[in-house]
Design brief:
Elements (H helix, E strand, L loop, with lengths): L6 E7 L8 H18 L4 E8 L8 H4 L9 E8 L17 H11 L4 E4 L4 E3 L1 H7 L8 E10 L11 H10 L1 E5 L22 E4 H7 L13 H11 L3 E13 L5 H4 E4 L2 H12 L3 H11 L3 E4 L10 H13 L20 E6 L7
Parallel strand pairs: 1-2, 1-4, 2-3, 6-9
Antiparallel strand pairs: 3-12, 4-8, 5-9, 6-7, 6-8, 10-11
Length: 353
């Protein structure tokens, strides 16, 4: 009999050499997280969705070394074959669809609470200690800041857990704290900055909002912020933990460095004209209606993504009015009807097959 874990953490991976030493980084990050969850005795599972695995490379589950545990953590790998990656714009260029991969794991998570997690990030000791109190509120959605740390080389992979956390704190170069949105956006004041790196809520809430929004491209822009606003519209109250954080070792391919807004001359002139005459509301409405400025991501220049006003602001403004008719995914989101190959590489004491 399987006892429900308290927490499910959902990550995604693809053995395509996205970053140097990717396999070693993944093994290090998983082992680190397992040890943290064990230390604080959190009945939990880590789900790694192997999305669209390259046929010429071994699966990540096969590359992974043995993971040690004191019995609190299960680690599951779920494989999504290439068939399910085809279709969205850009699929031939980019092998990962983050929204779809995360949704596969969220839909199959067994925990009472669920949070997606990029596998190259690290929870602070304070964050895992807070989770270990096992007193999360089913009506809340939890957020914390992401701290970006710059490492000079790969030597940090050899550090002990305590040394790594100390080094990450010491080499932090930027804190992604709470931002104040424009009053013209008419949305809730929620902590959307880097929210994809930590957004935790009950499995019931994730089911209510149908996970991350369906994206017809592989870009998956704004999806984390939309999920946060959707959760609030469905009754969740945001809890912002200030002392807890999540660390990210930054590299030269971060989202902010890759994304640029694209204006046409007439759009820029019109926008300046309206704002100069204090017609900000009309300027914002035109950005939504006419979908500008569009966005372009380096490496996928053939795709012009929707403007942030069309893709995010318009939805968030409706969510601020508690308009839950904004449905951003299908009823069978997360490939719910598909039977996918699964492999458990570590089984907790609570998880009896």
């Amino acid at each position: 009999m399987i006892v429900q874990p308290y927490l499910s953490i959902v990550g995604w991976a693809r053995n395509d050499g996205y970053t140097p030493n990717y396999e070693k980084r993944l093994e290090h990050a998983l082992g680190f997280l397992v040890r943290q969850l064990d230390k604080h005795e959190i009945p939990s599972e880590l789900i790694v969705v192997e999305w669209n695995p390259p046929p010429e490379r071994p699966l990540m589950a096969e590359q992974l070394g043995s993971l040690a545990s004191s019995g609190h953590v299960t680690v599951r790998f779920i494989v999504v074959p290439p068939l399910h990656h085809k279709g969205p714009r850009g699929w031939q260029t980019r092998g990962m669809h983050v929204n779809n991969a995360a949704n596969v794991g969220i839909r199959r998570a067994r925990g009472r609470f669920v949070t997606p997690k990029a596998l190259d990030t690290f929870y602070s000791e304070q964050l895992v200690s807070r989770l270990g109190q096992l007193d999360l509120d089913d009506t809340a959605v939890y957020r914390c800041d992401r701290l970006d740390a710059r490492m000079e080389d790969e030597s940090w992979l050899a550090l002990s857990d305590d040394e790594l956390l100390e080094t990450l704190a010491r080499r932090t170069v930027h804190r992604n704290g709470r931002l104040t949105h424009s009053i013209d956006w008419k949305m809730r004041d929620l902590h959307t900055n880097a929210c994809g790196d930590f957004i935790l809520m009950s499995a019931e809430r994730w089911m209510g909002i149908r996970g991350y929004q369906k994206d017809p491209t592989v870009l998956c822009l704004d999806s984390d912020s939309i999920a946060l606003h959707a959760a609030a519209a469905h009754g969740a109250s945001e809890v912002h933990w200030h002392d807890e954080c999540i660390y990210k070792v930054i590299h030269g391919n971060t989202h902010a460095q890759r994304t640029a807004t694209i204006w046409k001359d007439w759009q820029l002139r019109l926008d300046h004209y309206l704002i100069g005459r204090n017609r900000r509301e009309l300027a914002m409405a035109l950005r939504v209606w006419l979908d500008y400025p569009r966005r372009r991501v380096r490496g996928l220049e053939e795709i012009l993504a929707p403007s942030i006003e069309r893709n995010f602001v318009a939805k968030a403004a409706r969510y601020a009015r508690n308009d839950t008719s904004v449905v951003t995914n299908d009823a069978d989101w997360g490939l719910a009807r598909e039977t996918l190959a699964e492999r458990t590489v570590l089984r907790a004491a609570w998880d009896t097959p």
